[in-house]
Amino acid sequence: MSKLMLGNQAVARGLYEAGVDVVSSYPGTPSTEITEVVSKYDEIHSEWAPNEKVAAEVAIGASIGGARSFCAMKHVGLNVAADPLFTASYTGVNGGFVIAVADDPGMHSSQNEQDSRHYAIASKVAMVEPSDSGECKEFTKMAYDLSEKFDTPVILRLSTRVSHSQSIVEECDRIPHDIGTYEKNAQKYVMMPAYAKPKHIMVEERTQKLREYAEVCPFNKIVWGSTDIGVITSGISYQYAREALGDRASYLKLGLINPMPEKLIKDFASKVKKLYVIEELDDVIETHCRKLGLDPVGKDFFKWIGEYSQSYIREKIFGEKDEYVSYSENVPVRPPVMCAGCPHRGVFYVLKKLGVMVSGDIGCYTLGAVAPLAAIDTTVCMGASVSGLHGFNLARKGEYEGKAVAVIGDSTFIHSGITGLINIAYNATNSTVIVLDNSITGMTGHQNNPANGFNIKGEPATAVDLEALAHAVGIERVRVVDPNDLAETEKVIREELEAKAPSLIITRRPCALLKSVKHNPPVKVDADKCRSCKACMKIGCPAISMSTKKAKIDDTLCVGCGLCEQMCRFDAIH
Amino acid sequence: MTRSIMIVGVGGQGTLLASRIIGNVLLSQGYDVKMSEVHGMSQRGGSVVTYVKYGDEVFSPVIEKGQADLIIAFEALEAARYVEYLKKGGRIVMNTQEIEPMPVITGAAEYPANIVENIRACGCDVVAIDALSLAKEAGTARAVNVVLMGVVSKSTDFGEDVWIKALEECVPPKVIDVNKKAFALGRSIE
Questions:
Q1: Domain identity same for A206 and A227
Q2: Of A109, A322, A334, the CB nearest to B66
Q3: pLDDT value of residue B108
Q4: CA distance linking residue A290 with residue A281, whole number of Å
């Protein structure tokens, strides 16, 4: 049966059809839906891991145990999982092991624009790259055959436009995988120097075999059109190039992108007049071509930054542009904002009021960096708020004691904030860490996590006791406060900033978008009492506006959180 | 030949459901279909856009300036923001509802006046309707998306039964009645 599927859904379908047994992932846009969809297949054991390193290690363990295993992550997640990846390359697999990594060219929802293809080269594992949903399913299935045939982890490289585009997929049946027997094999799975040295030799031999396979791999294909222009490309860039150039060019589309073929590329290059390499982000294919002695048009001509598109490629190569109507009026931007009723809002309002330095982290609350709250000073990576605050306090030698905090969500704290908190306790800075506990992994679209008491299927699960955890690592001052109570939140934060010991403040209230959260009725403005002082506007709630010279509340957005009532000094909001 | 439809709006307005309905209609008619959407950060009350492309064989899933045959705008400011994506002489079906973006709320910018007139002055074929009122009339403000599908359905070659079937495939059974009502109200617009 043919269906429209997201690339991510199609990967999940591929996992199902390939007989995959174990899936462990940490959510990350644009990879999250793969594991969400997998969780609906009862034949596959799926789980949310605390972070990508744990997810990859679970999958490695499952592979050694004979299962076909999988983990998915966004590009920056592979930085976290890089450690197990590089050594899993040496151990190889028992059951097939595939890692999906979704890059985000254009940074739709990411903190950097790194190109994950470098990881396949550096860790010397096979990498395949689909360009639409149909290929997502087929390449996923092929990746398991490759993994088991060549005894290697395989990386499935995705990108935002492949993961989050829908196209047609034909569904097939699941072929169950036999996990066989487990046999102890220290030479293969114990990577200490005596055993790792021969494994490195195996890795180099494997790469050579994969190179030979790349010449005949059915996923490296040529589409002939005019031979005036030859394009070597892969992934979504192939789709842009096909649309831009049509039959005015010929295409060598690489599906296996590490290692890449040599003879196939040279033969293709010899049959076209002008050779282009079209690839988003870095010059990976181009560099390979140059090693082969070719001189394609590449990154000297095409951009290194952001997404490509059909218009971009057509204009660069043929100088052709589409005409469009021009709209000259000014259109204000519409940046993303914290939702009405968001429990993070009160915390950031208080932090802005106190004028403290805020070491930030990754999640919905990163929006605390934008106007009107504009409270956050730094955002680097998962967990960096906590460890970074410690470093900042060391640098300022006590100057910022009582004037700096870290903010981190519950899921991010579990991911890699806890290690930073251990460091604060152990290496003793007077740092104040705030866990914004909204009982969910929010930004990626509501995934359960080890702190909220539910597993991936929504069943009750063991929950981390954050208060006890903080005590256990040596933080004596632990406070819990409702962030929708502005006065109490301010009091607690002030007290912990003044305290002469490190502290953990947990601001606890579930995400307002959770279905389990009961909302109050929308509040209303008494126009007679409203003095147009705009105090209620300081919290940056999208439901409040001043279009009528008086405050006005949009009753389709308001969830009655009561923050604006607390802001109003004239008793005008109820 | 590939035809291109853009659905634009504000995060939370239900643009993804609308694209799913259109996708199912096109799939049932035997077209090759590609759709592209963006999840994550931009969904949090930000400007959101979904592309739908169909034809014999579709390659790129994205639509760029001057390439859309039809834009369905869920909000007036978003109609203005994306009108340059329309082909010359293309059609824009827009909800006249106004949702203030944060720069307007904070007073850093003003919500532009006369958007419908300005878009019409660009030479576009504009169908402007108050979809929010019709959705409320149907029973829920959340059905703005389905009202707009009703409006759009009239100017396509696909029969009403095809659209209703796609609606049934995409909407949970417990809210199908209110959505069918919303669709019918949209479709009744002349």
A1: no
A2: A322
A3: 87
A4: 17
Q: Which of residues 2-21 of B touch A (CB under 8 A)?
A: 10-12, 20
**Which residues of chain A lie closer than 8 angstroms to B103, CB-CB?**
332-333, 335, 371
Regarding whether A448 and A363 lie in a shared domain, the answer is yes
Residues A165 and A68 placed together within one structural domain of the fold: yes
* Contact between chains at B102 and A371 (C-beta distance less than 8 A): yes
User: Which among B34, B41, B77 has the least Cβ separation from residue A331?
Assistant: B77
CB contact under 8 A, B65 and A243: no
Mean pLDDT of A550-571: 94
Q: Looking at the predicted structure, is the pLDDT value of residue B154 above 80? A: yes
Query: How many C-alpha atoms does A238 have within 13 Å on its Cβ side?
Result: 23
Record: contact B40-A443, CB cut-off 8 A: yes
Residue B21 to residues A168, A170, A198, B85: CA-CA distances in angstroms?
15, 19, 56, 22
| pLDDT averaged over every residue in chain A | 96
Q: Are residues A227 and A357 in the same domain?
A: no
Same domain, A212 and A239: no
Asked if the Cβ–Cβ distance from B122 to A327 is below 8 Å, we say yes
Would you call B80 and A444 a contact, using CB atoms and an 8 Å cutoff?
no
pLDDT value of residue B43:
60
Domain with A251, as residue range(s), is 221-318
Cβ distance A327 to B80 less than 8 Å, yes or no, reads: yes
Tracing tokens 């805020």 back to the chain, one arrives at A358
Q: What is the pLDDT of residues A426-472, one digit of tens each?
A: 999 999 999 999 999 999 999 999 999 999 999 999 999 999 999 99
Indicate whether A152 belongs to any domain.
Answer: yes
List B residues 116-145 in contact with A (Cβ-Cβ < 8 A).
118-119, 122-124, 141
How does pLDDT run across A480-525, given as a tens digit for each residue?
A: 999 999 999 999 999 999 999 999 999 999 999 999 999 999 999 9
Cα–Cα distances (Å) from A254 to A225, A308, A535, in that order, read: 17, 17, 58
- Residues A57, A109, single domain; the answer is yes
Q: Work out how many domains chain A is built from and give that number.
A: 4
Of B35, B40, B62, the CB nearest to A30: B40
CATH of B3-187, one of 1.10.8.50, 3.10.20.580, 3.40.920.10, 3.40.930.10: 3.40.920.10
- Residues A304-350 pLDDT 10s: 999 999 999 999 999 999 999 888 888 999 988 899 999 999 999 99
